[in-house]
Amino acid sequence: MVTKAIGQEIEAYCGKCKNETIHLITAMQGAQIDKVMCKICMSYHKFRAGTSAVPVIRKQKTVSKPTKGSSMKTRRTKTAKLLEAADIDSAINYKMSSTYEVDEAINHKTFGLGIVKDVVDDQKINVLFEDGERLLVQNR
Ligand SMILES: [Zn+2]
Fold it and tell me: How far is the CA of 94 from the centre of ligand 1 (A)?
C-alpha cells in the first residue's frame, strides 16, 4: 500500500457531490488522512473513505429492534387482553339502576373498565375488571 501524503489524490466520498470523487489530500494526522479537497466541487472536508474501503452507509439501524414493545404486549394479562378486545368506545358508565348483558363493556367510577362476565341473577352481575372479578348490582 502506498503511503498517503499531502497533495496526493485519493478517492473519497464527497458529501456535496454525494458521490465518490477524486480528492486531494490537504491535511494529514499522523498516518491518517485528515482533510481532503474534492476536485469536482473544490470543497474541503474531513476525509471519509469511499464505499470501497469503509462502508459509508451507516448500519446502526439494527440497534433499534423494537422487541421490547412487542414483548411487553404479550406479557399482558388475560384480563387486560379481554379488556383490550372489548369495545372500549362503547363502554357504558355503570349505574346500579341499569341492566347489563354478558360481554357488555362497562365503565365503573372506582374500578375502571370492565366486562360483564356473568349475569348472576336479575340484580347481580359478575364483572371482570383489570384487577379481578367483582360482583356488582344491577336493576336496582
Ligand atoms: Zn465534491
Answer: 69
